[in-house]
Amino acid sequence: MKKFILLIVFLLTALNLSSQIEQHEVSVINIAVPVRVYDGNKFIDDLKIEDFEIFEDGIPQKIEALYLTKKTHITRAEEFKNFTPKVSRSFFLIFQLTEYEPKLGETFDYLFNEVLLPEDKLVIITPVKNYSLPKQALKTYSKEQLSKEMQSIIRKDTKIGSMQYRSIMQSLRRIVQAISGDSRAIDSESSGGEASSLGLLFPRYRQALQDMEKLRVVDEKWFLSFAQQLKRMEGQKNVFFFYQREFRPELSQRVIDGILSANQDKPNIQGEIQDLFQLYHRYSRLDANRIKQVFADSSMYFYFIFMNKKPEYVMGVQMREQSEDVFSTFKEVTEATGGLVDSSQNPAAGFKNAIAASENCYLLYYSPKDNKQDGKFKKIEVRVKNKDYKITYRHGYFSK
Questions:
Q1: What is the CATH number of the domain that holds 231?
Q2: What band does 8 get if pLDDT is binned at 50, 70 and 90?
Q3: Can you give the residue range of the structural domain that contains 208?
């Protein structure tokens, strides 16, 4: 095990991937647009260059080349101009979990047994570290060994990364139960019963909610930096974001109504309840439009695997979902990059669907008619003439 761990190389901090990314000057003179076309769930692989239309900011563009790719191979090319596209593959798996999901084992089994080719790159990103799989590992160790080691890493890093989160969650449960009148929770929370008074419990409850909110917020700056660095990479950049549905313990409306009714002559308690209502009403801190644009500009394929677990039952506690802002934002991001979103209780199934989508693609190239280097985001629209197909593609780029 120690010998193998040496092969899983710690790359860099969570905020910096630049040392592993090849540096290239990015030109917007020639624009590559990965496009996928479906009839239902079937990828359409017989389209020709004249079947497509591309618009930039509403202006029709001349398509100068079409390349049909399958995994890491170009299976067909139509060219008015040769672009020699890079079709090597890099896979980035990002995990933001509050608890380890055993079904992830199927994900890694599938990744090593059915997906990875010897020339592919693999990077695993956890809240603790980033890991790269050296190419010699695929030749030296069995696929079963590689899968088990990756599972061990995710399990360990999830436990370390979510330790503070789980501690706050446990405290929240006890405080909510104490406020709801659960005597066992009160006994475990207080010494001599003095902390069971509402005047002391409410401030602790409010602080715990605020602490949890700080921990569970997706780091927008990190994602933007990550996308900007991926822009400098060549080839196919497949990014899979595994995010676990989150719930937080809250007082039920029945309990709140009871507290308000029993404490009508206590303005401090009434005020505490009003403060809680403000905390319950959450505002998204994510700039969805900015993230969409930067991710589309990077020309990555972004896949959002939303692990849709059920809330646990805790007596006297209402478990409220707090993942809506993350889900809505990254659902839009997948659309802007031509990726896919999957929401289920089985992350392996979602991963397999995403991999299937990633393996076939048209690469369309054009040179913008009005190539102003003004730093503005240029919107791309792709159509298939006279057909009602589902089309996915990146929605634009920054002209700079």
A1: 3.40.50
A2: very low
A3: 169-214+252-278
